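User: Predict the structure for this protein chain, please.
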Amino acid sequence: MREPNSIRAYASLACIAIQSNQNDMFGGQSINCFDYAMAEGVGKSFRKAVVDEARKALIYRFEADEFLTEQPFKTDFKALVDFANCRYAESMETERAKQGIQAVGDALTKILEQHGKPTRDAYVDAAAIYRLACADVEEETHQAMEALIHNFNTLHSRAGAQVPFSSINYGMDTSPEGRLATRETLNAIWAGLGNGETAIFPISVFQLKAGVNYNPGDPNYDLFQQACKTSAKRLFPNFVNLDAPYNLQYYKEGDYNSYVATMGCRTRVMSNINGPEESGSRGNFAFTTINLPKLALEAKGDIRKFYELFDKYIDISHDYLRACTSSSRSMSTIIRSSWGRASGWTATSSSRRTASRTSSSMRRTPSASAALPNASSR
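Assistant: Here is the predicted structure, written as structure tokens:
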């Protein structure tokens, strides 16, 4: 699959990836750093918008001149723009916007000089090109996030039993691109579905952190306020407090995989006794919820009875999860064994099998080839 090159493609592939995972495994799917992931798509769409708007501006000035032929011009102009200093800005008054206009003006001057055209209006045009490119990417991001919300509520999974059980975590990216993705996601959730219904999925989780978005003066505080307003109307987003002691211990500034994320409204993803403690590239066998208010009602005010019930259901949950783990390991062993017999590899360990597939000592046997249809039918 080719790398996506626009915010629309990023948002579409996020839905498709979650749908595909949902069909292949048990449990819900979550994106732990949605704003950081979508920010890359915003940046790519902005760069395309700059090139498109530059060509439109020059067509307006020079009409259908030969050097404005679409593909050659886009290739040449893109190579001339210093995109390290030409990035999306939320306001034309920022230093980032001034740098972007300068970069566009420099590129315009160079390409006009190459083709013997006057350059006196290059920086005037650059300001308009930059402003229009920012507006273009804002509109494209708005449409992409609306499509994301609608796709998550119409895609089928698990033989059509439900739409994908999906979650997105966001709120921590303070870059203009990441902020735009968050803002338009919240706008799409606020707008709802076709007839104004509240979207069931994705379960939306806003990550709270002092110094980032929690207090007045924090760079993303306005997004926190928007999230509160949206949640009051739509019940989403939910909120996870990264400053809670049991979450803060993992936090590393600038490392989004150290930000605690959730799958659904209650499955916290971070602690790990079998590998790195991080929120990215993680999974779980199943989530298990104990309904504490129900136990309290059953106990009828008897604290001793409450804890007896609590202990009972903790034991049931423990045994259930142990059974899940045991079944998964057994199934994994069966699958590996069946695959090995069907494919005819003689190595036993997965590492040796992977390392030795091209070795002359690894050969298919007639019996293995004959067994392949039977293995497939099972």
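The chain has two domains: 1-164+175-200+214-235+280-285, 293-377.
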